[in-house]
Description:
This protein is of the alpha/beta class and about 230 residues long. Helix content is about 35%, strand content about 15%. It is built from 7 helices and 7 strands, in the order H-E-H-E-E-H-E-H-E-E-E-H-H-H. A 7-stranded mixed beta sheet has the order 2-1-3-4-7-6-5. Helix 2 crosses helix 7 and helix 3 packs across helix 4 (about 125-135).
Amino acid sequence: MIGIRWRVxxxxxxxxxLLPLGGARQDPPKLTxxxxxxxxxxxxxxxxxxxxxxxxxxxxxxxxxxxxxEARVTLMDDRLWDYPFIHVTGHGNIHFSDxxxxxxxxxxxxxxxxxxxxxxxxxxxxxxxxxxxxPDRPLVDxxxxxxxxxxxxxxxxxxxxIHEHDGLPARGxxxxxxxxxxxxxxxxxxLGNGWEDTDVYHDPPALHEAxxxxxxxxxxxAVTSRPTP
Length: 229
């Protein structure tokens, strides 16, 4: 049944992308982004307006039938398999149980996509936990030629820099399973902050727009890429 859920989600996404903007459409089941609730003490609920704003941008800029409400799941939730895009954020510690490590590995191997946004403080614990998920697959820089930087909007220089993190440059790390990018880690960028309501951080419009555009790319890639057989 898990594989069927992925096929349905991707068939839905592919069909939606073929619809002309403004054209007639039926009312298929809606896609959404699932925020991951994790243990360890980190604030997994950070940036409350970020995902609703990103979902609104996806609805407005693509023909994907996305909901206006984010989902919230744990790794052991049976509903996990309904969501091809899982988002993780926070400032503190993240910890997965042994059972959650197995579940996350299976989720990714079956075609799921994990986006982790380092909201300044998550980096050490996320690197520790993702190494438990894939001990033999290190995080690597995602090449600038990868579709995730070009699939809808063009980012020839890669991940946009939204907020400062000790003066470090924004970097997009990933884990590949075959040819498919299964994990995307936005480091020293603060994409989620850029998705927030503009009166939260008072970012210039150009930064808010860049963050939303990168988020649209992430989601479109996630729901249209195919797992390696």
